[in-house]
């Protein structure tokens, strides 16, 4: 019996209009009613998924959780209680910020604290992508984050739309800073940096341990490389049909459907309820 389902948001649970389909809502609500922990496991802040939690009926609900910032924080839905945090040091974040300014000055930079998102160089493309997903931010008026020196930072991400440039950014960062962080890629537009011991997989397993759930009793559903750690760590790792090639090659199961056609419902029906499509 699978007891926990960890689900990526963008391009997985959400369709291209940033909505959860009625079929996905229906199946997930049934699973929740039947005692399965439905856990949104996102690279974004837990604050950005509150409307999605309302849709699923677990908003402000005790003993229900969100894993956010690629595993950087685990938050109980009731009263937004932070139960676990693993962030980046300010020194590493500042170095990554400065590397972006030097090598990719046209890029938008996101710096996440537990309850705030600060962004530099916000362009219209970023606004169009983030606003439908419920993301709110404070726009920096100058390219400087020194005011965050004493504030815990959960992650930093850079919008670089070309994959070759994202890979080059990672090489530059590791050459200048060393292997002091974890790198992932998401949504075909971001390079993301987290604490070296943190990812969606460690976050999912940490929460499962807290809840007394075994790793083999978990399901993880995703589409992009930042979902790989949870897909590989779960009892069953599921790729939606629109997942990238790396995820498709590692998943235990590939959905027949994509994020626009109820892929999450397909996976939950198959593995939680043993329904054959």
From TrEMBL:
Domain of life: Bacteria
Gene3D superfamilies, sorted: 3.30.1240.10, HAD superfamily/HAD-like
Gene Ontology cellular-component terms listed: cytosol
Keywords linked to the UniProt accession: Hydrolase
Pfam entry (one): Hydrolase_3
One GO MF term: phosphatase activity
PANTHER family, alphabetized: HAD SUPERFAMILY HYDROLASE-LIKE, TYPE 3, PHOSPHOSERINE PHOSPHATASE
NCBIfam families cross-referenced by the UniProt entry: Cof-subfamily, HAD-SF-IIB
Name listed for the protein in its UniProt record: Hydrolase, HAD superfamily
Origin species: Ligilactobacillus salivarius (strain UCC118) (Lactobacillus salivarius)
Organism placement in taxonomy: Bacteria, Bacillati, Bacillota, Bacilli, Lactobacillales
């Amino acid at each position: 019996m699978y007891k926990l389902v960890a689900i990526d948001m963008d391009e997985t649970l959400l369709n291209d209009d940033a909505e959860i389909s009625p079929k996905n809502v229906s199946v997930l609500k049934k699973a929740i009613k039947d005692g399965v922990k439905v856990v949104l496991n996102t690279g974004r802040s837990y604050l950005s998924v509150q409307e999605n939690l309302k849709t699923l009926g677990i908003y402000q609900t005790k003993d229900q959780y969100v894993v956010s910032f690629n595993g950087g924080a685990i938050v109980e839905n009731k009263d937004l209680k932070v139960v676990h945090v693993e962030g980046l040091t300010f020194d590493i974040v500042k170095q990554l910020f400065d590397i972006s300014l030097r090598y990719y000055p046209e890029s938008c930079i996101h710096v996440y604290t537990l309850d705030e998102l600060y962004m530099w160089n916000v362009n219209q493309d970023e606004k169009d992508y983030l606003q439908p997903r419920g993301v709110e931010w404070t726009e920096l008026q100058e390219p400087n984050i020194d005011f965050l020196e004493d504030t815990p930072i959960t992650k930093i991400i850079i919008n670089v739309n070309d994959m070759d440039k994202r890979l080059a950014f990672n090489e530059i960062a590791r050459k200048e800073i060393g292997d002091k962080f974890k790198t992932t890629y998401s949504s075909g537009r971001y390079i993301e940096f987290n604490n070296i011991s943190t990812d969606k997989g460690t976050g999912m397993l940490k929460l499962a341990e807290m809840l007394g759930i075994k790793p083999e009793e978990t399901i993880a559903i995703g589409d992009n490389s930042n979902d790989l750690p949870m897909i590989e760590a779960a009892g069953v790792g599921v790729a939606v049909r629109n997942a990238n090639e790396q995820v498709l090659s590692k998943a235990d199961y590939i959905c027949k459907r994509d994020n626009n056609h109820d892929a999450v419902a397909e996976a939950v029906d198959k593995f939680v309820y043993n329904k054959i499509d």
